[in-house]
Specification:
The complex is a heterodimer of chains A (578) and B (118). Chain A is mainly alpha-helical and 578 residues long. Chain A is built from 21 helices and no strands. Chain A has one domain (60-308, 326-577). The longest helix of chain A is centred in the first third of the chain and has 40 residues, at 88-127. In chain A, 48% of the residues are buried. Chain B has a four-stranded antiparallel sheet. The chains are: A mainly alpha (578), B alpha+beta (118). At the A-B interface, helix 1, helix 2 and helix 14 of A face helix 2 and helix 3 of B.
Chain lengths: 578, 118
């Protein structure tokens, strides 16, 4: 009789036995290399069966992030706003480019750029003195900012600003884009340097937050009191969210952790935190300083005159659009310009200063090529997909509550109902986009481990997502009602400081980092474009500021959640004692 | 009451090394045909990855090691369903083996003990 397991055995799969002796290499008398492993030749069909799962996993990952967002925007615009989607096929192709571009770029980042970061982080502190290390980290901060996919979005929004309403905003976005990105990068570099010193010395994050916030708020108040500079605030505060993306965070962290480990301080569970916080605060200071500098250089009248001269120039030379400013050449140039400086710098450090080698030149080279190609494809997708769909959503949103020229049926709802719908739309957008962000999942797991389960992963994810959702709603409300950004930001950061004083170090670290971690390369351009489109449609002065709201609100949410958990724990121990 | 150990015999250990991220699928397949639990380790592997040149990038260097303890009776069934779920017949997917264990001990609920030893 046959046993059941044997029956299953026979029915499921054919099998045979083979001695492994037959497969392992045998020593040969005349050939000393006979025992060494040989290169494997991959046949075409095997290559396909290897490549298929490799590509599909990576593309699916990005598809999961992009598709629900795009579908949500499409459905909302069609069903609730009853507005057909213009150039839908272009947008779809653009979104496909975003998905493929991000998939290629992230893979390139993983196999090409990250090994550089790891090797340099491990070896640099052994071979160079501390000041040299810090200088290299500072330069790296600038490099990674250029390589950040979302930073390209900033540069493409310049043309939508009206110089008469917001002269300095127009000037900086159009004629100072390179200094803008450079100074944002300098901010990130400084943050990385201070973050690294913090790793090594084991400083507490709280005083650093107070020290970083003091000049930020000081400069904000200064700019706020100057009517010409006031409009720059939204851009400045949004820059903080843009910088902390998928390139900066892992590269800077791997360097910092390597350095902390070689200094013997790598075992603190909190040492990974803090850099993200500083990297989202310092760029604000940097941009505000730049705009104040610009305001000393040039008056608003000069900017408006320059703008008008520019327009008449444009009319004269309208037919001769240079090849370089056409798609796809422009995107390719942007992509190469974003990655190449970083790669060259990393190579100089690795080969020149460390005199070290890469583990596998071929694979790293492949990764670097991928990251450049990915960046170019992503840039094309950014222009035609994300910016386009975001802007359209923003422009049609007001149709819910007011009459706008592009929608014949507007206003669709009564003012109050329409406004409620718009705010609700923004809330859901923020909530969904944040929950879908893979970085949040990782942060949640870390936090659960760090607090020994007191702060559950799901609790963190929902409080961050809720915070971002509330922040985006608030940002949309700011644009619709033309509220003053500073009057929203200053009290919110005030509450943030009070909560920070009252919270423990762990929660402060987690909370301040949670905001930066969650604003990825898909959400940032989409939300920015939506804000600008909305701003244009309701003729607000400028459409920036949504992201800054989406940064502070999750911080408050996580801090309050942390307080709640602490209080609950105290109550429990008291009960136990009683 | 004196403490005692119950030794389990007829036990096999299935170990399966796969690319990072695929363990969950394989464990689900194993538990659906009767495996009681699994242990996962993270590891880094070398092998054909380094000998394939550029094609090596398609294979993740990060591995997951799944260990499942099974009874002799269910061992073949679990082994095969894991092999199939992990697509181990495709190049680069991973490797698995089974070894006989001398004895295993863990907590066994009293009522279960009573029931099986009658």
């Amino acid at each position: 009789m046959m046993k059941f397991s044997d029956y299953i055995h026979e029915s499921e799969i054919k099998h045979r036995s083979l001695s492994y002796n037959l497969l392992t290499p045998k020593p040969q008398k005349n050939n000393p290399d006979a025992l060494k492993p040989k290169k494997i030749k991959v046949s075409f069909f095997k290559a396909i069966s290897l490549l298929m799962p490799y590509t599909s996993v990576r593309v699916m990952e990005q598809l999961k992030a992009v598709f629900p967002l795009a579908a949500y925007l499409f459905i909302f615009q069609l069903l609730i706003l009853r507005q057909p989607i213009s150039s839908a096929s272009t947008i779809c192709l653009g979104l496909v480019a975003v998905i493929i571009g991000l998939a290629v770029f992230m893979e390139g980042l993983k196999v090409g750029l990250m090994p550089f970061g790891n090797i340099i982080g491990d070896n640099l502190p052994k071979k160079a003195s501390m000041p040299v290390v810090l200088i290299i980290i500072a330069i790296l901060g600038v490099g990674v900012t250029f390589a950040e996919p979302a930073i390209g979005a900033l540069q493409s929004f310049g043309s939508s600003v009206n110089p008469a309403d917001a002269p300095y905003l127009y000037e900086i976005l159009n004629n100072w884009t390179l200094p803008l990105v450079l100074i944002v990068g300098a901010g990130v570099g400084l943050a990385a340097v201070i973050g690294t010193i913090r790793f090594v010395k084991g400083w507490s994050l709280k005083p650093l937050i107070y020290l970083a916030l003091a000049p930020t708020i000081g400069l904000t108040v200064y700019a706020w009191l100057n009517p010409d500079l006031k409009t720059i605030l939204g851009l400045a505060w949004d820059c903080g969210a843009v910088t902390t993306g998928p390139v900066t965070v892992p590269l800077v962290l791997s360097l910092g952790i390597g350095i902390a480990a070689s200094a013997g301080k790598g075992d603190s569970s909190l040492s990974g935190f803090g850099v993200v916080t500083l990297a989202s605060l310092f760029p604000i200071i940097a941009v505000l300083s730049l705009s104040i500098f610009v305001s000393f250089q040039i008056t608003p009248e000069q900017i408006i005159n320059g703008y008008e001269a520019n327009i008449s120039n444009m009319e004269n030379t309208n037919d001769e659009v240079s090849l370089m400013s056409q798609t796809p050449y422009q995107e390719i140039i942007l992509g190469v310009r974003a990655i190449l400086p970083l790669v060259i710098f990393l190579m100089i450090v690795l080969f020149g200063i460390l005199k070290s080698k890469l583990p596998d030149n071929l694979v790293t080279g492949y990764g670097l090529v991928l990251s450049i190609i990915g960046m170019c494809i992503f840039n094309i997708g950014l222009t035609y997909g994300l910016s386009n769909i975001g802007q359209q959503a923003g422009e049609t949103l007001p149709a819910a509550f007011m009459q706008i020229p592009i929608s014949s049926v507007s206003p669709i709802y009564t003012e109050i109902l329409g406004l409620t719908i718009v705010i609700l739309f923004a809330w859901l957008l923020g909530f969904g986009a944040t929950l879908a962000e893979p970085a949040l999942n990782a942060l949640g797991a870390t936090v659960q481990e760090l607090t020994n389960g007191a702060f559950k992963k799901s609790m963190l994810m929902y409080s961050v997502a809720g915070g971002v959702a509330f922040g985006i709603s608030l940002g949309v409300a700011k644009i619709v009602f033309n509220l003053d950004l500073a009057t929203l930001l200053l009290p919110l950061y005030g509450i943030g400081i009070i909560l920070t004083i009252l919270s423990t170090e762990e929660f402060v670290n987690v909370a301040w980092d949670s905001a930066g971690v969650t604003t990825g390369p898909v959400t940032v351009p989409l939300v920015m474009a939506m804000g600008l489109g909305l701003g244009n449609a309701v003729s607000a002065t400028e459409g920036f500021g949504i992201l800054s709201m989406a940064s502070i609100c999750p911080i408050l949410a996580v801090l309050s959640m942390g307080m709640y958990i602490q209080i609950k724990q105290k109550m429990q121990t008291r009960k136990m004692e009683a | 009451m004196a403490r005692e150990i119950t030794y389990l015999t007829d036990v096999f250990l299935i170990t399966c090394v796969v690319q990072s991220g695929t363990a969950e699928k394989i464990i689900n397949a194993a538990t659906s045909v009767g495996a009681q639990g699994a242990t996962i380790n993270y590891a880094r592997g070398t092998g054909i990855r380094d000998r394939m040149g550029l094609m090596g990038v398609t294979i993740d260097e990060q591995k997951e090691i799944i260990r499942i303890i099974v009874s002799k009776e269910q061992s073949n069934r679990v082994f095969e369903s894991m092999y199939l779920a992990g697509d181990l017949d495709t190049p680069g997917k991973g490797i698995m083996w089974m070894s006989k264990l001398d004895r295993v001990a863990t907590h066994i609920p009293k009522d279960v003990l009573k029931r099986v030893s009658g």
